[in-house]
Amino acid sequence: MIYEILGGLILLKGMMTDEVKLVKKNGEVYENIKANVQTEKIFITDETIPIEEGDKLQRKLPSGMLENYIVLDRGFYNVDMAGMKPHYQCKVKKESSISAEKKLNQQKIYNVTGENSRVNINSTDNSMNVIDKSSDELFEEIRNIVNENIKNNEKIIKTINEMESNKNKESFMNSYQKFISSMSNHMSLIAPFIPALSQFFT
User: Fold this and answer.
1) How far apart are CA 188 and CA 79, in angstroms?
2) What global pTM score does this model have?
3) Could you give the CA distance from residue 108 to residue 11 in angstroms, rounded to a whole number?
4) Kind of pairing, strands 56-60 and 66-73?
5) Which of 3, 175, 180, 197 is the most exposed place for a label (fewest CB within 10 A)?
């Protein structure tokens, strides 16, 4: 481990070709910091910079755009060997990657409760409720989505009607499979409805 760290430092002495700005959580800013920026790690040899987890390191690209990195682990190494000074090996993650992951992890939920309930599309309520099996409004919402987004949808509407007539019956599975097959090119439209539809399997 000492050899790896030491070897890395020897190489990095001539590799501090990047310049970053530290923006701390409390608003303090430290500019013109020499660094070596890598995909998931940023090396900084100035041990006096007060880097903490949650701080942001910014690098300005030649295009003028900014890359923002969130510090996950400041990675301070307090070594003093072979002329090497204490330094940081900050584990970081690009802020844009974190935002993208959050969007992917967001789940679109439809709230359907009660006898005469409706599916709430684009609702600010992100809670998950189990659909009441007697709710006919769900199928109307699916028909509306199909009518608004798909042309020549007669075959699809027919499969929706068949599902509705077979809900809570053994034949519902066959109707459901027909519907899914007919929507194979439009799954993004109906994906949020699938958990609710599954409540009708017997």
Assistant:
1) 53
2) 0.45
3) 48
4) antiparallel
5) 3
Question: Residues in the chain, how many?
Answer: 202
> Contact at 8 Å (CB) between 71 and 51?
yes
Report the chain's C-alpha Rg in angstroms: 28
What is the DSSP secondary structure assignment for residue 193, as one 8-state letter?
Answer: G
| Rounded Cα distance, 135 and 137, in Å | 6
Note whether 190 and 160 are within 8 A (CB).
no
Strands 66-73 and 76-77: unpaired
Task: Name the maximum alpha-carbon separation found in the chain.
Answer: 80
DSSP one-letter code for 72: E
Q: Model confidence over 22-73: pLDDT tens digits?
A: 999 888 999 999 999 988 899 998 999 999 999 999 999 889 899 999 999 9
For the structural domain made of 2-103, what CATH number should be given?
Answer: 2.40.10
pLDDT tens digits for range 62-115: 898 999 999 999 989 887 654 567 889 899 999 887 766 666 655 555 555 544
* Listed residue (130, 143, 139, 127) closest to 195, CA to CA: 130
Domain ranges of the chain: 2-103, 107-202
Q: Token pair of 158, please?
A: 């027919």
| Token reading at 132 | 């009441």
The four Cα atoms 184, 189, 195, 196 give a dihedral, to 10 degrees, of -120
